[in-house]
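For reference, the entry.
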Amino acid sequence: MNLSQQTAKQFRDVFTGGNWTSVNLKETLTGVDWQQATTTVHSLNTIAALVYHIHYYVQAVLNVLNGNQLEASDKFSFDVPAMHNQEDWDKFVATTLADAEQFAALVEQLPESRFTAIFVDEKYGNYHRNIYGIIEHTHYHLGQIVLIKKILLQGQ
């Protein structure tokens, strides 16, 4: 397995399973309904806000991998759209997972030399830093989602 394939696998694993932590976004969100996803626990972000935040950066880098400009700003990364019902939540989760798979598929096709190339602008570092950063970022917020889900299931 080359670097591109290995990186794509690690990315997929945090979203759909197979990593050594035995936790992934898809399984963690299974059984979370829209009301739970939008419920604030203590002063923490909601599950919906954290999923949006994860997806925001995946989508930003995905745009670059698709040959487009980087159009993202940290100040918008928690601007989760309102969710009014289960259909809104289900559609949002499905889009998040579909975009993650598209991201992984594009990473899988990257020439290994791209990993050391500058990502959009020197201030952002190289592709390796950004792609692995997304993986680390997802693991970090996934841990928060797991804890919030546990609190919600215990009735706060």
The chain is about 60% helix and 0% strand. Helices lie at 3-16, 25-29, 34-37, 47-65, 86-109, 127-153. The two ends are 44 Å apart (CA to CA).
